[in-house]
Write a structure and sequence with these properties.
Order of helices and strands: HHHHHHHHHHHHHHHHHHHHHHHHH
Number of strands: 0
Membrane topology: Multi-pass membrane protein
Protein name: Citrate transporter-like domain-containing protein
Radius of gyration: 23 Å
Keywords: Membrane, Transmembrane, Transmembrane helix, Transport
Transmembrane segments: 12-30, 36-54, 61-80, 92-114, 134-153, 182-201, 221-244, 272-289, 295-312, 319-337, 357-383, 395-413, 433-455
Shape: globular
GO molecular function: phosphate transmembrane transporter activity
Length: 459
């Protein structure tokens, strides 16, 4: 699959533009063949063009997301107004800046604070030193550290930092031992799984929360963690055992030198960062009691961090604006589907008469397959609006899709942490494929069990 994508990549721009041109001139066909109304036909065209460019990445994903807004305002809105519908331009614009945007901005600011003042590295070094010299414990420690940091930081930044830290450890592994592959796989896979743990851990989580909130199903920051942590822990344990069996360490010991910086006292600024971090997390966890939205808590974190000089203009420019625009584009696409009525049409077209398990399995397999070869954010943006439109099961479907978007990791292109690991030179694609497929299968089973038996306990 990856080889096919690589061979087609040089031709993607021309192919994508040609297909998009055909799609843009086919909305009349949708009306004739599918029986769609004018608004639904335009919305379907926007959906197909967006999916095409998100899958092929002919242009950066955030450009495609802004294209959703442009097509919504310039193309769909006039059609809806002509039909007498009450849609307004602000309905589409608000998708790009709301509570979920501020929540994720707050998460990016926390990540910047932890990295800039060296706290993430200190935490990682300290935890590694506590694992001992047994390779099994070292591997478990690396998995735990990577997952813990990825709950609060960018998965990509965590993976890059962890590979820099474990370099001296890998040098101690004998040339004939395959255990170095276990370490190289542990970091990206644990980062991917760790993103499940919080709404800010990975964009699909926030996308699912926002769509469910719009549907009247309120999921707090704390409730998301309660739902996701058990599965996260089970998958991390499975990852640990899987890597030990695929790449047994044998009779080796790993010596971990104490990092002198770990013994130093914290600076005043590091202490301030820790206070901001703890208060922000508490604000997110207690939002239901204080009445403060997660976005407002994130805003307070942003204002404080920049206001007292911990972060500066250069740090502001380094915020992952592309991710924020992708979030906005996905939410805007949801508005397109809702305002046009296409979500209801899609919901009626899905064969719910085949039973819950049939539809559930199809959605999970689609999420797993799509995320393996394309951005997990783009996959969530495409599938979750459809899942939310299915009456009675929108909660289970949406959360399950979000989980699968973070746990499908069989190829180097599946996630940025996977790409970083593959670029280390310690792995071949088949190493990632074997372990990744097994882990994805376990995640499918775990997600199904969690969705059917555990999540309903809270609703």
């Amino acid at each position: 699959m990856e080889l096919i994508f690589q061979r087609l990549r040089p031709h993607w721009p021309a192919l994508s533009i040609a297909i998009a041109f055909l799609l843009a001139h086919s909305f009349g066909l949708y009306r004739a063949v599918l029986g769609l109304g004018p608004g639904e036909s335009v919305a379907l065209t926007i959906l197909l063009i967006t999916a095409l460019f998100w899958i092929t990445e002919t242009v950066p994903l955030y450009i495609t997301s802004m294209g959703v807004l442009a097509m919504s305002v310039l193309w769909l809105l006039p059609v809806l107004e002509g039909l007498g519908k009450t849609a307004q331009k602000d309905d589409f614009l608000q998708a790009f800046f709301g509570d979920i945007t501020l929540l994720f901005m707050g998460g990016f600011v926390l990540s910047a604070l932890l990295n800039k003042f060296g706290l993430a590295r200190r935490i990682a070094n300290w935890m590694i030193q506590k694992t001992g010299s047994a390779p099994e414990r070292v591997l478990l420690g690396l998995i735990a550290i990577s997952a813990l940091l990825s709950m609060w930081m960018s998965n990509t930044a965590t993976a890059a930092m962890m590979f820099a830290i474990v370099g001296p450890l890998i040098l101690q592994i004998p040339a004939g031992s395959a255990f170095s592959k276990a370490i190289a796989l542990a970091i990206p896979f644990a980062c991917n799984i760790g993103g499940l743990g919080t709404p800010i851990g990975t964009p699909p989580n926030a996308i699912a929360m926002e769509y469910l909130n719009r549907a009247g199903i309120e999921i707090s920051f704390a409730l998301w963690m309660i739902i996701s942590i058990p599965l996260l822990l089970l998958l991390l344990a499975a990852l640990w055992q899987l890597l030990l069996r695929l790449y047994p360490p044998g009779e080796i010991e790993i010596t971990i030198d104490e990092d002198p910086a770990s013994a130093d006292n914290f600076t005043v600024r590091q202490k301030i960062v820790m206070v901001i971090f703890v208060l922000t997390i508490l604000g997110w966890l207690t939002g239901g009691m204080t009445g403060l939205s997660t976005g407002f808590v994130g805003l307070l974190c942003i204002i404080t961090s920049f206001g007292i000089g911990l972060l500066n203009t250069a740090d502001f420019r380094n915020i992952s604006w592309d991710i924020l625009f992708m979030l906005g584009g996905g939410l805007c696409l949801g508005v397109v589907l809702d305002e046009s009525g296409l979500t209801d049409t899609i919901a009626h077209a899905i064969p719910m008469d085949q039973g819950f398990m049939f539809v559930f399995a199809i959605l999970l397999l689609m999420a797993a397959g799509m995320t393996t070869v394309m951005s997990n954010t783009a996959t969530a943006n495409l599938l979750i609006p459809v899942a939310v439109s299915l009456p009675g099961n929108e909660l289970l479907f949406s959360i399950a899709i979000a989980i699968m978007c973070s746990t499908s990791m069989a190829l180097p292109v599946s996630t940025p942490p996977n790409a970083i690991a593959f670029g280390s030179g310690l792995l071949q694609a088949k190493d990632m494929l074997i372990a990744g497929l097994i882990l994805t299968l376990l995640a499918l089973i775990g997600t199904a069990i969690t969705s059917i038996f555990y999540i309903p306990l809270f609703f």
